[in-house]
From TrEMBL:
Active site, per annotation: S42, D153
Gene Ontology BP annotations: lipid catabolic process
Motif (GXGXXG): 13-18
Motif (GXSXG): 40-44
Originating organism: Sediminitomix flava
Protein name: NTE family protein
Lineage of the organism: Bacteria, Pseudomonadati, Bacteroidota, Cytophagia, Cytophagales
Pfam families in alphabetical order: Patatin
PANTHER family from the UniProt entry: NEUROPATHY TARGET ESTERASE SWS, NEUROPATHY TARGET ESTERASE/SWISS CHEESE D.MELANOGASTER
Length: 264
């Protein structure tokens, strides 16, 4: 039974869809799981960092709901990305430890180093900088330096870091947030186009990592941009429902395949 197992949570990226992670955790906490370690990419790295710092799902959600798009990001022109994550940086500095070693649970973050086209799995050092790098969607956000290397969102190469947890825990639960259909349009703006191109990579690398998941959670959702802050409450409740379904019958989530709802 899952109750007696050491669990690892692999939390995918997805921008504001990370509220689904928070809702899932809210329902999952009622299960009293033995969560041994967490690995997160992009939005999953934000939620994972707060969770491993000891925040409850309700506390995380309260912080998210108190954040607006205007306070979360600021326009950066075209210098290494359209926007910078000044608000996220401030949120991290105000609420979670600076170093991985100060967390309550083992935690890993993925990012991609541009110089060597290399996937980085970061588990020590500057936690804030690691999370910022993991969230830096190419073109949309400016690059973030890790040890002097320009880095972008870990989702480019590994959006569902279940492989990072493989062999460290008894069972891995992968929670994926990008199972949605884009509305067809011939007039995509730069932000939408950048997100579509990025999600093409995400969809392919998620499939590669399914083999490392004992359970795969991938709720179908309506199109939601990574910056649709006005949908945060709805996304949270999708996560709660999905989490309750999982708690009720985990075996429904053992089928490890990913068939996206539609084309980008």
């Amino acid at each position: 039974m899952i109750e007696s197992k050491e669990i690892g949570l692999a939390l995918s990226g997805g921008g504001i869809r990370g509220a689904i992670h928070v809702g899932f955790l809210d329902a999952f906490e009622s299960y009293r799981p033995n969560v041994k370690a967490v690995a997160g990419t992009s939005a999953g790295s934000i939620v994972g960092a707060f969770y491993c710092a000891g925040f409850t799902s309700k506390e995380i959600m309260a912080l998210f709901k108190g954040t607006s798009l205007r306070s979360f990001v600021s326009w950066n022109g075209f210098r290494k990305g359209l926007m910078e994550m000044s608000g996220l940086k401030k949120l991290l500095e105000q609420h979670i430890p600076k170093d991985f070693s100060e967390l309550e649970k083992p935690f890993a973050v993925t990012a991609c180093a541009l110089d060597e086209e290399e996937l980085l799995v970061i588990e020590e050092g500057d936690l804030h900088q690691a999370v910022l790098a993991s969230c830096s969607i190419p073109i949309i956000f400016q690059t973030v330096e890790i040890n002097g290397r320009a880095c972008v969102d870990g989702g480019v190469l590994n959006s569902l870091p279940a492989d990072v947890l493989h062999g460290r825990v008894d069972q891995v639960i992968g929670v994926h947030l990008n199972n949605m259909r884009y509305p067809s349009s011939k007039q995509d703006n730069l932000l939408v186009l950048a997100e579509k191109v990025f999600l093409m990579s995400v969809r392919h690398n998620v499939k590669r990592n399914l083999k490392y998941c004992d359970y795969f959670v991938s709720p179908e959702i309506e199109h939601t941009s990574v910056l649709d802050f006005d949908k945060i409450e709805r996304l949270y409740h999708i996560g709660v429902k999905t989490g309750r379904d999982f708690v009720k019958n985990p075996t429904l989530f053992t089928k490890k395949e990913f068939k996206p709802q539609g084309k980008l």
